Amino acid sequence: MKNTVRTIFLLLVVFLFSAGSAVAGTYTDHTFSPSPMRFAHNGVYQWGINWAPPSGEYITSANLSITGLRNWDYYKSTQEPYDLYVHLLDEVYVPPNTSSSSWGNVTKVYDTNDDFIDWFETQKDAPSQVHLFTAGNRKDKDPNKTKGDNKYYFFTGTTNISYNFDLSELSLLTTYSKSSDHFGIGFDPDCHFDYSTITLTVRTGPNPVPEPATMLLVGTGLLGLAGIRRKKMKKD
C-alpha cells in the first residue's frame, strides 16, 4: 500500500510540474490600454481589442489592472452605494435600436434603464461573454464573499485592482481572440467612476496552459489506478 501511495504521489508531482512548466520558456507580454473613459451611470463601455496570439503561441496568462479606481463621491464621509461590473467579451455589441457613440477603441452604449443591475447579464442576444469581477461598495454585498465564481472587490475611497484570469477565462480569451482576431472588455457602472489607468497584459508562450477538464481527468485516472491496485492486492 505504501508503494502505491508513493507511486501516485510521484505521478502527481510529475503532472503538476509538467503543468507548471507549460508557461516556462520564451514568452512575450502583450499590453493593451483603452482610450480615455469616464464611467457614467447612463452608459455601458466596451473596449474593443484587435489582437490574436502570434502563430504557434498560446495564451498562458492574462491580467487586468485598474489603478486609482474611485467612486465619484469618494471624498464624502458617506459614499453612495455603487458597483462597477467588468466582463470579458467575444466582441463589442450594440443592441438594435440603441443609441451609441465611439471614440478610439471604446464604444459607449447608452443605458436608458439606468438601474442597479449588470447590463451585460440582461443581453440575451449578445455574443458570448463572461463576468470577470465586480468592484464597489453596495451595502447589500458582503466584502468577504465572492459573486458566483468570480471576485467581488469591496472598497471605499480609492483602490487598485489586479485581476488574474483563471483557467476557464484564459480558455475563453483564447477562443475569442483566435476565432475573429478581436475581443473586448466591458464595463457597466451603476454611477460615475473615475480611474487613473486600465491595462490588460496578455502573456503568450510556446505551450498551452492545461485546461481544468484535462487536469481533472488526469487526477481521476490516477485515483482510479490506485483503487485498482489496492483491489488487486486484497485479492492476492
Describe the overall structure.
The chain has helices at 2-20, 167-180, 212-235, and strands at residues 28-32, 43-49, 58-71, 83-89, 100-103, 106-110, 129-136, 151-154, 158-164, 183-189, 193-194, 197-205. By secondary structure, the chain is of the alpha+beta class. The chain has two domains: 1-24 and 210-236; 26-206. The chain contains three helices and twelve strands, in the order αβββββββββαβββα. The chain is globular, with a radius of gyration of 22 Å. The strands form two sheets. The chain has a seven-stranded mixed β-sheet with strand order 5-6-2-10-4-7-8. Strands 1, 3, 9, 11 and 12 form a five-stranded antiparallel β-sheet that branches. The longest helix is centred in the last third of the chain and has 24 residues, at 212-235. Residues 12-17, 19-24 and 213-218 have low confidence and may be disordered.
Which structural class fits the helix and strand makeup? alpha+beta
Strand order of the largest sheet: 5-6-2-10-4-7-8
Residues in helices, as a percent range = 10-25%
Proportion of residues in β-strands:
25-35%
Distance between the termini: 13 Å
- Helix tally? 3
Task: Tally the beta strands.
Answer: 12
Properties at a glance:
236 residues, alpha+beta, 2 domains, seven-stranded mixed beta sheet, five-stranded antiparallel beta sheet, 33% strand, globular
